[in-house]
Structures are given as C-alpha cells and as structure tokens.
C-alpha cells in the first residue's frame, strides 16, 4: 500500500516540481521594433520560437521609426530596462555602442553562424570589431536600368559602370518629348534622401565629409566634382522638379517607365520587377557607378536587433536575437511566405541558395553589399564609419541642412561653389557647436 | 505683538529690525511685488522642472491647462492665505515662530529648513556645474551619482566658491540678482523659440509652424507626449495642477513668503505673485521643456538625463553658459544664506563660522550628485509637506482663534518656553501626511491640503486645552506697552528715514536704460523671433540661429554692464537724497 502510494505520489511530485520550476524560470522579453513588413512577419513567426522555448513569452512594442528612436533612447539612457531587445539601424549601432549602451553579440547561442554574416553588414553594426547588432535586413544601392531603351539606343550597360558612362548614357537616353528622363536620382533634401546618394557619389569621387582631424571637407575639389556630376545629370537628364524627388517618387517614375536609369536602394529591386511595374520585363541591374578611384557610389544600410546593456534577461534576449537573425529563420520565412519575402542582405548562405539565386537582382545585391565598406567608406582615411552617413549624433541635422543647399543647385538658385561653401560653413558651425556637448 | 516677557526692559531701538514688525513707511506698492516675484520664480530650477514634466509623461493639453490652473491656485493661495497673515503681523515667519511657537518648534523648523535650503542650493550649484563641464571636456552626467571624478571636483569647487560668496558677498550677488530678471525672462522665452524649428524638423521634416495648433501638435508629439520615461501613460491634468500648485507650497500654505509679503501695503498684492507663477512656472517651464527635448533629440539622449548646461548651451549658445551659471548661482546664493541662518538658529551656541562651514560641507557633497537636481520637483513637494503644518498652525492662530475667542499669542502670554500643542500638531501632521502618502490614496503633491487642515484642527483643539482661551491680563498689558513702544520707534524711524523713492529722470540714466532695454532685451527677442518665424528650411534655420547666438552674447554683456550701471546710479541717487534729507533735519530751522 505504502509502496503504491509512493509510486503514485512520485510522478505527481515531479509534475508539481516541474510546474513550479517552469513558473519560476518563465521569462518575458519585450522587443521594441519598427512597423515595417519584415518585423510584422517576425512577430507572426515568433510562435515558432516560443514553441521551442515554452518558458519564454515575447511581447512586442511596435512603433514608427522616430518614436522608436526616442523611446529606446530614453529607456536605455535612463537605465529603464523596459526593452530587452531593440531594433536599430547602422546609424545608431555605432553611436550607441560607443556609449556602452549595447551588449556585445559575439557570443550568440544556438549555433549562430556569425561567420556567415555578410562582412560589410557585420562591420556596419560593429564597433571596435565587436558586433552590437544582429542584422535581419541589409541593403546597398545599385543601378537599375531599362534594357529595352538601352537596346534601342545600341548601348550596353556594363556590370560595373563608371560615372562617365552613366553621363553619356543619360544624354543618349533622355527623351523629354516622350517623358523619359535619362536618369532618376534622389533630389529631395534630407540626410536619408539626396544626401545618402550624394555622399555615396562623393565617396566615389574621393571626397569625404571630414578629414582625420574632423575638419569638414565640403569645399574640396572632390566634392565639387561629385556635385557637378550629380547636378549636371539631374538638370540635363533628370525628371522635372528633380529636387522634389525622393525614393518613393523615383520608384513611381521608374515603374511608369519614365526613367531610363535609376541609382538607388537594392531594396527597390523587387518593386521594379513586380506586377506594379509597367516595365517589369525590361529591367536590368548593375553596380552603382564609380570614378576609377576604387570606391563605388553604393551605400550600406541594415536593420538589426540589439540588446540594451541594462536588460535583466540577457540570455533569453540573446536566444531570441540569435533565432530571429539565423539561417533557420530565413528558411522559415521562405517556407511560409516564399523566397521573395526573405529579408535580404544579411547572410552569405542566402545568396548561396540556388532558389534565392533565381531572384533577378540577388547577385547584384550581394555584389553591391560586398563592395561597400563602412569602416573605410572613402578613398582617403576618415575618422568615421558609415558609407552614406557619418556616425555622429548631429549628422542628421547637418546632412539635412546640406541637402537643402544641394537642392538649391538643382533649382538653379545656387551655384555648385556657393552650395558647397554654405555647406562647409554650416558643417563647421554645427560641429563646433555640438562637439563640446557630445564629448564622451 | 512681540514677546517682551523675557526682556521687558530691552530697548526697542536696540533690537534687530528682523525681530520687529515692518514699519508703515517701509511698505511697498504692487509694482515692487510684480518685479520681486518675477525675479524670484525665474531661476535655474525652471530648466530642471520643465524637463521633469516631460520625463513624467505629461500631455500637452494637460500642461497648457494644468499649469494655468495650478499656478492660478498658487497665486490665489498667496493672496488669500499668505498675504493676509503677513500684512496682519508684519513679521517674517521665522520671527513669528520664534515668538509664538516656542524654542523647540523654532529649532526643529530651522533644522528642516537647513536640509531643504541646502538641497536646493546643492541642486542649483550642480546645475551651474553642468554648464562648466563642457568647457573642461567632461562627459555628460547621465547617472544619479557622479560618474566622472572631474565633474565631482568641478561641482565641489563650485560649491566651495558659492559657499564663500554666500558668506562674504551675499549682498553683491543678491543685488546682481535683481537686475537679472528681465534678461532671464527674455532668454528663457528666446531659448524655446530658437529650438522649436529644430524640434519640428525632427518630427515633420519642416522647420516652420503656421499656427498655434501646429505648435500644440508638435509639442504633443515630441515633448509632452503623455508617455513617461518608462513608456507608460504619464501624469494627467490633476497631477499637473498639483505639481504647479505644490511647487511653492512651503511659500504660500507654508507661509515662508510672509518674509516678503509683510512689506505689502495691502493683502491683495499677494496676487502680484502671478508674475512669477505665470511667467516662471508657465512660460519658462514650457520653454525649458521644449529646449530640453530639442537638445535630447540632437544629442540622441533622453531628456531625463540631458543636463541644464547642455540644454542652455544648445538653445542659447555662449549665452547659455551665462544663463545657467547666473540663474544657478543667484538661486543658490539666497538659499545657502537661508540654510546658514537656519543652521545658526538650530545651533546658537556653536560659532557661526563652524555652522556655516558644516552646512557648506553638506552642500558641497550634495552638489556632486545629479540626482538631487533631477528630483527637485518631488523634493519641493515633500518639503512643502514637511513645512505646511506650521502654516496651518499660524493660520489657526490668526484666523480661527479670534473667531473662537482664543488668544492668538497665548503661548507668549502664558510665558512658556515651548509650545507643546504646536510640536504635537506638527508630529501628528507628519505622521498623517506621510502615512497618507504610504497608502497611495492621494497623489503626493496634494498631501499638503489635508495635512494643512489636520494642522488647523489639531492645533486649535490642543491649544485650547493648553490654555489659549484663558485670560492673561498682566502679560497682555505688557504686550500693549511693547506695541506702543514699537509704534513710537517706527514713528521716529519714519521721521528720519527718507522713504520717498526718488525717480532718476536724468538724460544719462534714460540713455543707459534705453541701451540695456533695446540692446540687451529687444534685439535678442527680435533675433529669436526671426529664428522661429523666418527659417523656411534647416539651412536657413542654422544661419538665423548662428546670428542669434553670435549677437546675443554681446547683447548680454552690454545688458549687464548697463543694467548694473543703472542700478548703481539709482542707489547713489537714493543715498544722496537720504543724506540730503538727514542734513536738512539736522540743520535747525532759521
């Protein structure tokens, strides 16, 4: 009787103990993220993670980009501990890592293949060689062009075009009577709009924002050459009201067949060949142009998951980040949503996959990302990282102010020289003003 | 009115002025109080409190309406509670307590004041140090404790200097503070105006605002978002009203401002406090919050950790250093002085130098901790809770006792050393107030209200039981004699003191005044206006802002030189006039 009682009681005790243990071990992690399609999908697929980790509950706080920056910054700076994982871009990664706000991610668990990450993306999310953000999406920029127009004009787009070729092709292909611009480029002022492109162009012309002593270099000859190329292309071969054209506007123009060439984000690749595009069947892809100085005009951007230093759930947060940015996650997305929906630009293995290689712009996207080097973005050495931006907190304001000067050139209200002189002045002033505030 | 029981033969003329009621000829009209309160409530604390509302997650509509209501309640409290008692007694609260509430109450009260004023001083010195830290290449202090030895050293050094200045040069700093008010008002407003376009650009991509509703939308989206630092719903209308009302509880319900309002000819001048409330605690708080949010956005930091020095520098350029240091020091100076005086009252047998140094040492240590200045709003609210029972006790004596047939000055008449009902009442109130706080039934900023009521009821009951209703004919006669002697003394003073303010209408003074008004105030205001309303894009904004920064620092220098000159000329004129009046009286009539 006693033995039978013991036999019955033992499993019950085990169950109770397990339940208690499970309750005691249960953890909730809170993730702050942006409201884009990739992240919405990740939320939906999180059930796969929680199924494998029943002791973990994942809560999502989805915000627009500006609010996310503000909330995450406040939480981390004040040690609030509200978020265990935050979504950051390459711009924040370096600044926050410098401030010691983020946990190093070189030891992510679960067989996380850190060596599989594309080197430029990894570099863009690292500080002093240590990874602080695990990428779930990466992009560069490349040249999209109309193969039909090129064929008609008897032109052949090289895989690695030069700016000289682009100028000639734009001159040849511009047909304003038929509403075709030889080239579409971002002209709308803003650090993430015209300045992202122009900074990339400037890099290819051997220009840089600052020299090694943090002295602004916008009045240099290299910047003059870069801006002259950019403004000539747009004023002579660009769309009407070029200074109002940002990413979305140019995408619409290209989809409507009004751009012969467009140098912009690799992320646009899927949209110029989808059903919304009137020219989907005649789009080719090439690298961003260069000027023979060893740097192409292609930028690099990535969205990543990072872990604040002050989280109380370090290990669980790492476990989630490892899962959400793993090879297995990419395979899961392919399985549930198809290859076209897989977040691009993070892992070599994705581009080795024969299925993904069938995506028309996949190879050129990989080549473009690999051609970007955020740790050495310019021909000469510079003290900053970031290809199309400078990893300074004040850069967004400076970039937008300079962007306005560049737009003035397109609107014929300023010369190249005046615009660069003003840009130099505003950069010097702002650097002097905020330099003291941001000393660490 | 004054206790003569301990020294009936003492000559009134030998007594310290502070111990006597204010004579009638030294009373002031409303203009004096409008300026005085404007000055008193535009200080370095405003930088911190503005940011505190943001960190606490107040919403824009709650701020606009709540601060209006709360500050109106504060002004009404000064008018209806503080001013009538101040005008009736013509004494400072400290003197009143010493005479009417006994030695022990006075000593404890002064002890509490030491802590409160030392904390405020420390906070203000830390605020000044945050401006200096950028000059010495010290990183921002984002933690509650000092995270950099050099910052602690600077804060401590600034404290030591401030303590020495307060000890040796109090009058100079206090005098200097009087000319700061108009400049501080312009600069606080200008700072907010100058940073609004930058803030707007981060939210909308545009630097221009076309209507007030756009401003409300901007402030609601970027500054007063309704969400606190932890991402939770922030404080609402009731809490905002409470904070605005309670920020000066110790001054109005707590009656500390009897010291100022005892000089008012009429109690309605209590409404003049509205200049301080509506500008310093409305415009300046909102402006400081806008400045803080814009600076935080630029620095990619949280507003909860951005220091006032950074905010002021980013908003006002080099003038920002000046404003933070001046606003910090001119606030720290009187509070250090008050703390020192209070400490001397607590330890009357310890040499003054030792007491001052001990208080100074506390301030030096406190100033190294950014925590204190960041928590200034709760500190002020809790300080009010500690001091408000005394206000309730005095209110009971002055307003309730006469109606119940009790003697307002029963304790003096009875000749007791300690006023035990007052001490017990205070203890009851502290237990009640902090007990109520522990229950969480009432938001802590409102605790002063029931606590004040408890003080009135409790003291009335206890004092009546202790003999407040009894008759003390001998002592009352002695009081009347003393009052008569005071009146005679005041009459003599009135005859010898020239109490007519002589207006300086000379061309030179008018010229000096025009210079500091136009160059020191109007030009910076116009430039700030230009930044706000004439910056169509970010580049134009930077150009206008640089112009504002570059010109304003020179305007500031000119302002202080000429305003100081104006002040000194005015003083010299009054002095000469008094000397002339004295010689006229000394010369026998022929």
What does this structure look like?
The complex is a heterodimer of chains A (440) and B (590). By secondary structure, chain A is of the alpha+beta class. Chain A contains 18 helices and nine strands. In chain A, the strands form two sheets. In chain A, strands 1, 2, 3, 6, 7, 8 and 9 form a seven-stranded mixed β-sheet that branches. In chain A, α2 (37-52) links the parallel β1 and β2. In chain A, α7 (163-173) packs parallel to α9 (221-237). With 590 residues, chain B is mainly α. Chain B has two domains: 28-488, Hydantoin permease (Orthogonal Bundle), CATH 1.10.4160.10; 508-578. Helices cover 73% and strands 0% of the residues of chain B. Chain B has helices at 30-40, 45-55, 60-89, 93-100, 102-133, 149-168, 170-204, 212-222, 237-246, 258-261, 274-299, 308-316, 318-346, 352-367, 370-374, 376-404, 410-414, 420-439, 448-468, 473-496, 507-533, 538-586. In chain B, α4 (93-100) packs antiparallel against α5. Chain A binds chain B through residues 61, 66, 69-71, 73-80, 82, 92, 95, 189-190, 393-394, 396-397, 400-402, 404-405, 422, 426, 429-430, 433-434, 436-440, and chain B through 134-135, 137-140, 142-143, 198, 201-203, 205, 222, 227, 229-231, 295-305, 310, 313-314, 317, 537-543, 546, 549.
């Amino acid at each position: 009787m006693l033995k039978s009682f013991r036999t019955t009681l033992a499993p019950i005790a085990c169950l109770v103990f397990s339940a208690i243990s499970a309750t005691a071990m249960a953890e909730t992690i809170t993730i702050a993220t942006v409201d884009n399609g990739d992240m919405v999908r990740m939320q939906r697929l999180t059930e796969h993670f929680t199924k494998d980790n029943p002791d973990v509950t994942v809560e999502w706080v989805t915000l627009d980009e500006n609010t996310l920056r503000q909330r995450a910054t406040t939480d981390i700076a004040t040690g609030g501990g509200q978020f265990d994982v935050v979504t950051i871009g390459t711009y924040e990664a370096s600044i926050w890592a410098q401030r010691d706000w983020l946990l190093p991610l070189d030891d992510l668990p679960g067989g996380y293949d850190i060596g599989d990450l594309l080197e430029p993306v990894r570099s863009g999310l690292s500080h002093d060689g240590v990874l602080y953000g695990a990428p779930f999406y990466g992009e560069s920029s490349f040249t999209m062009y109309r193969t039909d127009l090129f064929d008609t004009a008897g032109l052949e787009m090289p895989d690695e075009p030069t700016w000289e070729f682009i100028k000639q092709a734009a001159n040849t292909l511009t047909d304003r009577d038929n509403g075709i611009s030889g080239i579409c480029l971002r002209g709308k002022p803003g650090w993430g709009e015209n300045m992202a492109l122009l900074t990339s162009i400037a890099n290819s012309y051997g220009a840089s924002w600052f020299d090694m002593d943090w002295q602004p270099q916008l009045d240099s000859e290299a910047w003059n050459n870069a801006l002259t190329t950019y403004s000539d292309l747009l004023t002579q071969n660009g769309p009407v009201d070029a200074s109002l054209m940002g990413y979305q506007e140019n995408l619409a123009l290209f989809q409507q067949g009004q751009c012969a060439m467009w140098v912009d984000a690799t992320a646009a690749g899927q949209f110029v060949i989808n059903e919304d595009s009137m020219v989907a069947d005649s789009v080719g892809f090439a690298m961003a142009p260069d000027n023979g100085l060893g740097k192409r005009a292609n930028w690099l951007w990535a969205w990543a998951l990072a872990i604040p230093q002050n989280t109380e759930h370090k290990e669980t947060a790492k476990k989630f980040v490892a899962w959400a940015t793993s090879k297995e996650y990419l395979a899961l997305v392919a399985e549930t949503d198809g290859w076209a929906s897989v977040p691009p630009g993070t892992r070599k293995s994705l581009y080795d996959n024969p299925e993904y290689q069938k995506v028309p712009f996949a190879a050129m996207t990989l080549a473009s990302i690999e051609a970007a080097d955020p740790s050495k973005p310019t021909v000469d050495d510079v003290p900053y990282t970031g290809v199309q931006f400078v990893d300074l907190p004040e850069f967004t304001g400076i970039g937008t102010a300079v962007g306005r000067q560049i737009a003035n050139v397109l609107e014929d209200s300023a010369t190249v020289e005046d615009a660069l002189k003003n840009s130099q002045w505003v950069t010097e002033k702002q650097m002097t003003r905020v330099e003291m505030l941001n000393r660490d | 009115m004054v206790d003569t029981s301990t020294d009936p033969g003492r000559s009134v003329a030998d007594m310290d002025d502070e111990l006597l009621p204010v004579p009638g000829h030294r009373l002031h009209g409303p203009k004096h109080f409008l300026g005085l309160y404007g000055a008193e409530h535009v200080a370095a604390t405003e930088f911190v409190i503005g940011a505190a509302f943001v960190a606490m997650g107040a919403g824009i509509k709650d701020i606009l309406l709540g601060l209006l209501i709360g500050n109106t309640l504060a002004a009404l409290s000064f008018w209806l509670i503080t001013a009538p008692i101040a005008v009736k007694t013509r004494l400072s609260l400290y003197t009143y307590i010493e005479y009417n509430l006994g030695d022990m109450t006075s000593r404890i009260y002064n002890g509490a004041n030491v802590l409160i004023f030392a904390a405020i001083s420390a906070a203000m010195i830390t605020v000044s140090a945050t401006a200096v830290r950028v000059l010495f290449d010290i990183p921002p202090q984002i933690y509650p404790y000092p995270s950099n030895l050099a910052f602690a050293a600077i804060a401590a050094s600034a404290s030591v200097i401030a303590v020495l200045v307060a000890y040796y040069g109090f009058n100079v700093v206090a005098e200097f503070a009087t000319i700061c008010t108009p400049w501080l008002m312009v600069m606080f407003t200008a700072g907010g105006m100058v940073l609004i376009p930058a803030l707007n650009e981060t939210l909308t991509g545009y630097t221009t605002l076309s209507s007030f509703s756009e401003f409300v939308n901007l402030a609601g989206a970027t500054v007063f978002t309704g969400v606190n630092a932890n991402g939770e719903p922030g404080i609402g209308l009731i809490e905002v009203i409470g904070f605005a009302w309670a920020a000066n509880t110790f001054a109005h319900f707590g009656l500390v401002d009897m010291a100022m309002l005892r000089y008012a000819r009429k109690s309605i001048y209590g409404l003049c406090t509205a200049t301080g409330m509506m500008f310093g605690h409305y415009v300046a708080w909102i402006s400081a919050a806008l400045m803080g949010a814009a600076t935080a956005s630029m620095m990619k930091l949280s507003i909860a950790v951005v220091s006032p020095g950074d905010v002021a520098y980013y908003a006002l350029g080099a003038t920002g250093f000046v404003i933070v240091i001046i606003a910090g020091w001119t606030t720290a100076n009187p509070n250090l002085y008050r703390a020192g005086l209070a400490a001397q009252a607590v330890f009357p047998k310890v040499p003054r130098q030792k007491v001052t140094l001990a208080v100074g040492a506390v301030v030096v240590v406190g100033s190294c901790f950014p925590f204190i200045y960041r928590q200034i709003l709760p500190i002020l609210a809790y300080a009010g809770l500690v001091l408000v029972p005394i206000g309730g006790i005095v209110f009971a004596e002055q307003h309730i006792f006469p109606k119940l047939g009790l003697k307002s000055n029963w304790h003096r008449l009875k000749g007791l050393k300690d006023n035990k009902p007052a001490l017990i009442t205070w203890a009851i109130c502290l237990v009640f107030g902090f007990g109520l706080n522990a229950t969480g039934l009432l938001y802590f900023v409102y605790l002063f209200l029931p606590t004040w009521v408890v003080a009135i009821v409790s003291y009335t009951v206890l004092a009546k039981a202790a003999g407040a209703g009894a008759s003390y004919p001998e002592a009352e006669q002695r009081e009347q004699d003393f009052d008569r002697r005071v009146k005679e003394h005041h009459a003599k003073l009135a005859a010898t003191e020239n109490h007519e303010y002589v207006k300086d209408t000379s061309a030179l003074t008018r010229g000096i005044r025009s210079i500091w008004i136009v160059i020191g105030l109007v030009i910076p205001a116009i430039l700030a206006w230009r930044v706000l309303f004439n910056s169509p894009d970010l580049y134009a904004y930077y150009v206008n802002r640089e112009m504002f920064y570059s010109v304003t620092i020179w305007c500031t220098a000119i302002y202080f030189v000429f305003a100081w000159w104006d002040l000194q000329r005015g003083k010299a004129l009054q002095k000469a006039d008094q000397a002339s009046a004295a010689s006229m009286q000394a010369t026998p009539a022929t």
